[in-house]
Design a protein that fits this description.
The complex is a heterodimer of chains A (about 450) and B (about 180). Chain A has about 450 residues and is α/β, with parallel strands linked by helices. Helices cover about 45% and strands about 10% of the residues of chain A. Chain A folds into three domains: about 210 residues, NADH-ubiquinone oxidoreductase 51kDa subunit (Rossmann fold, 3-Layer(aba) Sandwich); about 80 residues, Ubiquitin-like (UB roll) (Roll), CATH 3.10.20.600; about 90 residues, de novo design (two linked rop proteins) (Up-down Bundle). With about 180 residues, chain B is of the alpha+beta class. Chain B has two domains: about 90 residues, Arc Repressor Mutant, subunit A (Orthogonal Bundle); about 80 residues, Glutaredoxin (3-Layer(aba) Sandwich), CATH 3.40.30.10. Chain B is built from seven helices and four strands; from the N terminus they run H-H-H-H-E-H-H-E-E-E-H. In chain B, a hairpin with a 2-residue loop joins strand 3 and strand 4. Chain B is elongated and about 50 Å long. Chain B starts with about 20 loop residues before the first helix and ends with a helix. Classes of the chains: A alpha/beta (about 450), B alpha+beta (about 180). Chains A and B meet through strand 3, strand 5, strand 8 and helix 13 of A and helix 2, helix 4, helix 5 and helix 6 of B. Chain B: InterPro entries: NuoE-like, NuoE_dom, NuoE_N, Thioredoxin-like_sf. Chain B: Its cofactor is [2Fe-2S] cluster.
Chain lengths: ~450, ~180
């Protein structure tokens, strides 16, 4: 295949004939070329390429991948085996990008692991897959079998010195498994509680051996960086960050979905052009730029580019890059309550700010939502946000959980206060009026048929 | 235990030998042990394997697994009680997992969950009297552009509407016949 430089490396394999997950199709579109190229490069060259590309982890934290990988001990006397783990436990509220990559391009993930194995001399890879992703499980299993048959996995792959195999682990479901040390504990057959760091997994991870855990999308980028070079990768981004990103939008927009776009694409372009703007009758009140554990942003931030540091400067995080839209008809207190409830339920219980702080925040929010709140509850909530701040907890779950809460208290404070002063949820009051109207309309037109079931 | 269900629910019968595990289960667990660098690494997969055969993880199942693998029963139970998809109580033949993530709720999923509850006449966490359905909402199922969604019988149901629920339940119920 001729060397054309793609602008959409991650999704160009996805074709309309619905077989982009098969080995044949993937190879026809240039699949496994990056891996073949990596076999001709030394570990040092590969790591330098990765560092130079400026790739940052796509799971949410945005840590530079090359730097992370450079902490893994190398050389003949380095501990072995070394493990690679794909974090495919996508459970962030509002995030649905990994599912698409897992279902449509499983071979891209395998190729990413192979490039990683060649870079770090790893011998075993795991794909830690969310238990509810059944279609992804089926396709990954098929892809792994295809690779074993084609000698792309196993001993002396493609006649090289590299021996590497991949196991698929399907999770039993817990959000905390997305935290890399909790994920490792889970794989060791324990409760998924995070570990104290250091030691970092790169030095002592799974079974005490050097381990790299990276997100699905991060691994997917590796073969292309090797194949087309770090310069190409850097130039893909519109602003400071390199490469492309799978961005997504959910909520009351005309065309919710996922798109691979350059890093640094302005939020407005994603929401208005790609997601087709707000649905009729709804307007934008705010949005979470990168999933459920990121701070709210509002209309004045629409022209900010989706870049890790640019979003960071506005007081939020790019997270997973999947935007959740809060419309003007949905109660902001309700939205924050949904999120806090989720985080309280999914807290592993290991440290106090999370185990005790989040359920407490849930109780206060429920009280406010019911119309029984007092103004002191808002002060209490603000205190809880500080209580769960980074530095007070083992991992990022609690600090992430309070991000939407603290920012909602900032941007939508009037809504919290109106719940308290009016002693009810102003949104629910409006909604139930509307539902009553809809209901009587449907009874009139459907001859009473539809209301029987409800 | 306090959280045991009131009524006796018939569980799938698995033919076991003296160890309390079926031949199929033993083979499956042997294979897991051969792949894992350390014994404890099999815990979640072994529990899922037994659950796939029996529907849930009873005390007897935990004991049998502990005796067969030499993993302490307390270790097994600490794991079994931690994860959302390992059931320590009996569930119906089909477990309905409507999504209660924020993206689904923004699109009216709360109403869909109420309709499911109403149609089946059970609350979240309960099983129908005929033992056919259990309702367990799960957090964000990762299909937010198709909200509201539900997973049941390994299938993803997208863009759910109130009107399709009776037919959906009827079709899923066919598995029980």
């Amino acid at each position: 295949m001729s060397q054309t430089f793609p602008h959409n490396p991650l999704t160009r394999f996805i074709t309309s004939d619905e077989a982009s997950w098969c080995l044949q199709q993937y190879q026809n579109h240039g699949g496994y070329q990056g891996f073949r190229k990596s076999l001709e490069m030394s570990q040092g060259q590969l790591l330098d390429t990765l560092k130079e590309s400026n790739l940052r982890g796509r799971g949410g934290a945005g840590f530079p991948t090359g730097l992370k990988w450079s902490f893994v001990p190398r050389g003949d006397d380095a501990p072995s085996p070394r493990y690679l783990i794909v974090n495919a436990d996508e459970m962030e509220p509002g995030a649905f990008k990994d599912r698409m990559l897992l279902e449509k391009t499983p071979h891209q993930i395998i190729e990413g692991l192979l490039v990683g194995a060649q870079t770090l001399g790893a011998s075993i890879g795991y794909i830690f897959l969310r238990g509810d992703y059944y279609l992804a499980e089926e396709r990954l299993t098929q892809a792994l079998n295809e690779c074993r048959d084609a000698k792309l996995l196993g001993q002396n792959i493609l006649g090289s010195e590299l021996s590497f195999d991949i196991h698929l682990h399907t999770s039993a479901g817990r959000y905390i498994c997305g935290e890399e040390t909790a994920l490792i504990n889970s794989m060791e057959g324990k409760r998924a509680t995070p570990r104290a760091k250091p030691p970092f997994p790169q030095v002592a991870g799974l079974w005490g051996k050097p381990t790299i855990v990276n997100n699905v999308e991060t691994f997917c980028n590796l073969p292309h960086i090797i194949n087309f070079g770090p310069q190409w990768f850097k130039e893909l981004g519109r602003e400071d960050d390199a490469g492309t990103k799978i961005f997504g939008v959910s909520g009351r927009v005309n065309n919710p979905g996922l798109w691979e776009l350059p890093m640094g694409t302005p939020i407005r372009e994603i929401i208005e052009q790609h997601a087709g703007g707000m649905c009729d009758g709804y307007s934008l009140k705010g949005f979470l730029p990168g999933g459920g554990s990121t701070d709210f942003l509002v209309e004045k931030h629409l022209d900010v580019p989706m870049d890790y540091d640019a979003i960071g400067k506005q007081g939020s995080r790019m997270g997973t890059g999947t935007i959740i839209i809060l419309d003007d008809k949905y109660c902001p207190v309700s939205m924050v309550l949904n999120l806090i409830k989720f985080f309280a339920q999914e807290s592993c219980g290991w440290c106090t700010p999370c185990r005790d702080g989040l359920p407490w925040a849930q109780v206060l929010l429920e009280k406010i939502e019911r119309g029984e709140g007092e103004l002191e509850d808002i002060t209490q909530l603000e205190e809880l946000c500080r209580f769960a701040a980074p530095g007070n907890t083992f991992c990022a779950l609690a600090p992430g959980a309070v991000e939407p809460l603290q920012s909602a208290l900032n941007y939508f404070r009037e809504d919290f206060e109106s719940h308290i002063t009016q002693a009810c949820c102003p949104f629910h009051a409006k909604q139930s009026l509307k539902l009553d109207a809809d209901h009587s309309r449907s009874m009139n037109t459907d001859g009473g048929e539809s209301h029987e079931q409800v | 235990m306090a959280n045991r269900p009131q009524q006796a629910i018939p569980i799938a019968l698995v033919e076991t030998d003296a160890s309390g595990l079926s031949e199929k289960e033993q083979h499956g667990i042997d294979a897991l042990i051969s792949h894992s660098p350390q014994l404890a690494g099999i815990t979640i997969d072994a529990l899922k394997l037994i659950q796939a055969e029996r529907g849930w993880i009873s005390d007897a199942s935990l004991n049998a697994l502990s005796i067969y693998t030499n993993i302490p029963v307390a270790d097994l139970d600490s794991v079994a009680t931690f994860y959302n998809l390992i059931f320590r109580q009996p569930v119906g033949t089909i477990v309905l997992h409507p999504c209660d993530g924020i993206s689904c709720d923004l699109m009216g999923a709360e109403h869909i969950r109420q309709c499911l509850s109403h149609h089946l006449n059970i609350n979240a966490g309960e099983t129908t009297a005929d033992n056919h359905f259990t309702l367990i909402p799960l957090p964000c199922l990762g299909a937010c552009d198709k909200a509201p969604v539900m997973i049941a019988n390994k299938q993803l149901f997208e863009n759910m509407t109130e009107t399709e629920i009776p037919e959906l339940i009827r079709a899923l119920g066919e598995v029980n016949k």
